[in-house]
Write a structure and sequence with these properties.
The protein has 253 residues and is mainly α. Helices cover 81% and strands 0% of the residues. It is built from ten helices and no strands. α2 (23-52) packs antiparallel against α6 and α2 (23-52) runs antiparallel to α7. Mean pLDDT is 85; it is low at 1-20.
Length: 253
């Protein structure tokens, strides 16, 4: 009785497999879906924490620490999933039937996605210990703000899925590109001035004086987090220019 009930599901998987070209195409879709789900959970958790903390320095919310614990297995999974995506794509390009040496594959992955790899390792080895142990139960509000930064991830993932499915010239892709620009700028760039503003508002300090009223290591940490966000935002802007300038050019032709 088990075989007939599994047959439709097997046929559906076979159709999807053939349509997308096998695991090389199917696995990245699963990876993007999981990343988007995590981003939604992080954003919701961050909004709950931010809205619950009236005192930006001393108020507590259990989600601020609990979600940091959740980030540990997720970041390990996400790093390994990125590596597998790179592995399968490199196998397809080199056509070596799965015999590519692991050491060479890892080295190639780190070189190709160096900044993202460093980003993940920094979260695991620096931000997680700070968020769990070293911040002395202070600053749940700011932890919530950093979680809200994940709002742009589902739109970034959707954009990559549309490109993978060769839908990069559709209206959906152009609209999604606008949401990527908006959410990334608001939640990953303007987020940092907002955190300084929130601190200054509570303690009656002008925004431009806040960096001089908080510990140096806080400024260094914020700058270290903001720097790669600015780099990625510049890349997104360059892609947006190409995306929105290609359409008029094609119409002229």
């Amino acid at each position: 009785m088990a075989v007939p009930t599994c047959t439709p599901h097997f046929k559906l998987d076979t159709v999807i497999w053939k349509t997308l070209g096998g695991i090389t195409e199917l696995f990245p879709l699963h990876f993007r879906f999981v990343s988007s789900v995590q981003a939604v959970l992080a954003t919701i958790s961050g909004l709950i924490v931010v809205s619950s903390c009236r005192d930006v320095k001393n108020d507590r919310h259990w989600l601020a620490t609990a979600y940091v614990w959740f980030l540990i297995p997720y970041m390990i999974y996400d790093t390994y999933a990125m590596y597998l995506c790179h592995w399968y794509r490199s196998l397809e390009k080199e056509n070596v039937n799965g015999k590519r040496p692991v050491v060479r594959a890892v080295k190639s992955f780190v070189q190709k996605d160096f900044l993202m790899f460093v980003h993940h390792m920094a979260i695991l080895t620096v931000l997680v210990p700070i968020g769990v142990y070293f911040r002395r139960d202070l600053g749940d509000f700011f932890v919530g703000c950093l979680l809200v930064a994940e709002l742009s991830t589902p739109f970034v993932s959707l954009g990559k899925v549309l490109i993978q499915l060769k839908q990069q010239h559709t209206l959906l892709h152009k609209v999604n590109g606008g949401f990527i620009l908006l959410t990334f700028f608001l939640c990953r760039i303007l987020l940092f001035p907002f955190m300084y503003y929130a601190y200054g508002r509570q303690y009656g300090i002008p925004l431009y004086k806040v960096p001089f009223h908080i510990p140096l290591h806080c400024n260094v940490a914020n700058a270290s987090i903001l720097a790669p966000q600015l780099y990625w935002f510049c890349l997104i802007c360059r892609k947006a220019v190409r995306l929105y300038s290609d359409a008029p050019a094609k119409k002229v032709r």
